[in-house]
Write a structure and sequence with these properties.
Length: 159
């Protein structure tokens, strides 16, 4: 079993979390290397609290108390425009003060967000490519998570 905590960008504070939970259930994106037979327990889910991370000093430490072994910064940290400029600070604090490893990302980056960011060029401008590694390389997965597609979640998506 692996116990995780998830921090989300406060710009998505009203997010239902569907894509994150789907990616955990279906072992996509940042969870693609966790064997299906291994249980992933979510011990906490919380917004960062707003720039530059109002809940950063509280939430990951609280998740650790409840058993979190790793903190995921959700894919929304990078999906929003612009990407979160505080990712290095969040990683640094969680790893070095809270004492937990950080994984940037949860679900695959949906293709519609990839298209928008490639158009804008901000991922290169803001030097965040290193954080996108597990989120954009599988085109099929990115298309699967693009909820703007007319056949989103239709049976044909499951092949
Ligand atoms: S941009 Fe970063 S610091 Fe600001 S609300 Fe989103 S995750 Fe938090």
């Amino acid at each position: 079993m692996v116990k995780i905590g998830i921090m989300i960008c406060d710009r998505n504070r009203k997010c239902t979390g569907n894509k994150c939970f789907k990616s955990i259930n279906e072992r996509d994106g940042a969870f693609s290397e966790v064997p299906r037979k291994e249980t992933i327990e979510i011990v906490g889910w919380m917004t960062c609290g707003g720039c530059p991370g109002e809940r950063l000093e509280f939430a990951p430490a609280d998740m650790k108390k409840y058993g979190a072994e790793v903190i995921h910064l959700a894919t929304c940290y990078l999906a929003g425009y612009p990407a979160c400029p505080y990712i290095p600070d969040h990683i640094n604090y969680i790893e070095n003060v809270v004492g937990l490893p950080v994984v940037v990302g949860t679900h695959p980056m949906p293709q519609n967000y990839i298209d928008a960011h490639e158009n804008m060029g901000d991922w290169d401008r803001d030097n965040v490519r290193e954080y996108l590694k597990n989120l954009v390389e599988d085109k099929k997965a990115s298309e699967k998570y693009d909820s703007t597609r007319p056949n989103f979640l239709k049976p044909t998506d499951k092949d």
